[in-house]
Amino acid sequence: MTNRIRNTLISLSLFAAAGTFSGLSNAGDAAHGETYTAACAACHGADGNSAMANFPKLAGLGEKYLLQQLKAIKSGARSVPEMTGQLDALDDEDLADIATYYAGKTMQLSGSNKQTVQLNSGLKVDGLALGAKVYRAGNAESGVPACSGCHSPRGLGNAPAGYPRLGGQHADYIVKQLKDFRAGNRTSDGEAMPMRGVAQHMSDAEIDAVANFISGLN
After folding, report:
1. Pure H helices in the chain
2. The pTM is what?
3. How many CB atoms lie within 10 A of CB 157?
4. Which own/partner pairs from 5-10 qualify as long-range (CB within 8 Å, at least 24 positions apart)?
5. What is the pLDDT of residues 115-138, one digit of tens each?
6. For residue 21, how many C-alpha atoms fall within 13 Å in the half-sphere facing its CB?
7. What is the Rg, in whole angstroms, of the alpha carbon atoms belonging to the chain?
8. Hey, what domains does the chain have and what are their CATH numbers?
9. Of 102, 118, 18, 1, which is closest to residue 60 (Cα–Cα)?
10. In angstroms, rounded to a whole number, what is the distance separating the alpha carbons of residues 178 and 199?
11. Contact by Cβ (8 Å): 182, 196
């Protein structure tokens, strides 16, 4: 299969996933959702801006995406050990309210850092430059599509389609998620497997570089 055909198929699967996400109801009550977030604040921050890089920022990720992930975690379709039992007593309406609350918050930027990464060839390159290239244009040689196609050029995501905001997220968290998608340990991207389809072609250097670039994107 040529890279052009493979990239086309991946792009089609991304649009198919958007249709899956868009079927989720997200008419939540933010005020009611806030009443459940006291327990969330310890890891994710009172306003959804986690201070710890191993816990994701939830602020501004988008209602549909947040609701889809909360449902996946509750059902066990997505394994997050730290969340075990946290959602058991909540129904779909409660989850929708929580999603609406965090979606209405503003994500604070983590910020990118100067970085050098080593390619599989052994060549060491500017990580920020590599991250920007992969995010904006992908890697045609290995079949990695541009992240900006779904998550927007500024990393703001596509809330109606269910694609989360990435810009400003913790780099360490993004690295872990991409590696989990690549290894098949995270499967909550639906039957179309858009993120698994992308991550399987990414090298460690590309993952580290694009995560660092994204953390300062806005």
Report:
1. 3-22, 30-34, 38-44, 63-75, 92-103, 127-137, 148-151, 171-183, 194-199, 204-214
2. 0.86
3. 20
4. 6/143, 7/138, 7/140, 7/143, 7/145, 10/143, 10/145, 10/194, 10/197, 10/198
5. 999 999 999 999 999 999 999 999
6. 29
7. 17
8. 3-19+110-214 (1.10.760.10), 24-103 (1.10.760.10)
9. 102
10. 6
11. yes
CB proximity list for 62: less than 8 A, separation 6 or greater? 103, 157, 158, 159, 162, 163, 164, 165
Structure-block tokens of residue 92: 């779909």
Q: What is the DSSP letter of 159?
A: G
At 21, is the pLDDT very low, low, confident or very high (cuts 50, 70, 90)?
very low
Q: How far apart are the first and last CA of the chain?
A: 35
- What is the spatial distance between Cα 99 and Cα 88, in angstroms, rounded to a whole number? 16
Structure-token pair, residue 214: 């994204």
Cα–Cα nearest to 44, from 76, 69, 27: 69
Cα-based distances in Å from 92 to 62, 69, 136, 159 = 16, 12, 36, 19
